[in-house]
Amino acid sequence: MAELWGSLGAPAPGRSCVLQVISARRGEGTSTVARELALFAARRAGRKTWLVDMDLGTAAQYQALAMEAERYGALGPAVAASPDGSVFFTVQPPAPRPDGGVWPDARYLSAHGVGGTRLWVTRFNREALRGPQKVHVIPGAEYWTALRRHAEVVIIDSPSADRSQAGLAIAQHMDQTILVVSAQQPDVKPPAQLRDAIASAGGRCAGVFFNQASVQPPAFLKAILP
Description:
The chain is an alpha/beta fold. The protein is about 25% helix and about 25% strand. It is built from 7 helices and 10 strands. The longest helix is centred in the N-terminal third of the chain and has 15 residues, at about 30-45.
């Protein structure tokens, strides 16, 4: 994580950075990379860090941190995860309120402090959905702009491209996108296609994180390394 953090270039004091971590295929270890990078940024680099979980179906990051509380620290109580009411998704149809209005989308997203450190993790409260309600990621910049004013480092754990287009929808608003490739996946085509899709969507691919790597990455990665 120290090498990855250093290669990205630490933001200058007073400036924030928003990083997306994504893979072309499920099972590449993206969530682990995102979680460990967030932990490093918060504890070793001393930055106020938010880990945003874009998997709105399982709350995987929240669950992983809760299961390893001895290592990461206990999770704090739920608080609002939006500084200004904006979020990166919409819930449709909206839930009606007794006063005739509708519940705002931001009520479905909470944040929890991790171990009393500078690290926070988001959790989508899927249990609050009712009946036919569905959640959809939206490509707007409002939420990411708000978090830039609230945190020094924002790390987004996006679902793999073979599961969801969410990562491509937000790519243009990221400072950098880190592409994770597993040692057990020798096929170069899907990561290369995702790299090109990120660029076409207006994003910037910082490079490839070779998960479970040896000292030297295999030759096939040379085709997609920047």
